[in-house]
Amino acid sequence: MAISKPNLNEWARVQMQRVVKSSGLSTKEYARRELLREPTTLYRWISGESPIPLVVTTWLLENCQIENPPSEEDDASDYERVMALLTELESLAKEEKESG
User: Fold this and answer.
1) Residue 86 structural domain
2) How many other CB atoms are found less than 10 A from the CB of residue 34?
3) Cβ neighbours of residue 38 under 8 Å, at least 6 residues apart?
4) Residue 87 lies in a domain
5) Do the domain assignments include residue 22?
6) For residue 71, what are the CA distances in angstroms to 42, 66, 83?
7) 62 lies in a domain?
8) 3-class SS letters over the chain
9) pTM score
C-alpha cells in the first residue's frame, strides 16, 4: 500500500495549533514568549493565510510529539509519513538554497 505524500504546510499548521494548545499559553503569549514573533504572524500561520517558514516547519517536525502512541501495526506507517515529511523538507531546503 502506497503512502500518500502529506501536505507539508497543512501538517505544520495543524501541528502548530497542537503545540500552542498543549503549551497552556494563549496564541498571543506563545507567539511572544516561545516563538519571539508578533502574534499576528502566528495567527496568519494557523489560519493558513501565510505559509509557515521552512525553518519553523523543520523545528515542528523535529520536536513533534505523538500524544497517543500508535499501536505496533501503525508504527511503520507513522515512520513512513515522518520520512516523507523529512524528504520533502530536504527537497524544499535544497530548492530554497539553489534559488537564492
Assistant:
1) 8-67+74-95
2) 13
3) 31, 32
4) yes
5) yes
6) 33, 12, 18
7) yes
8) CCCCCCCHHHHHHHHHHHHHHHHCCCHHHHHHHCCCCCHHHHHHHHHCCCCCCHHHHHHHHHHCCCCCCCCHHHHHHHHHHHHHHHHHHHHHHHHHHHHC
9) 0.63
pLDDT in tens, 3-58: 556 678 888 898 899 899 999 999 999 999 999 999 999 999 999 999 999 889 88
The percentage of the chain sitting over the pLDDT mark of 90, rounded to a whole number, equals 36
d(CA 46, CA 94): 25
The contacts of residue 89 (CB under 8 Å, 6+ apart) are 8, 54, 57, 58, 61
How many domains, the chain? 1
Determine, yes or no, domain membership for 3: no
**Residue 6 neighbours by CB under 8 Å, 6+ apart:** 81, 84, 85, 88
Rounded Cα–Cα distance for residues 66 and 40 (Å): 27
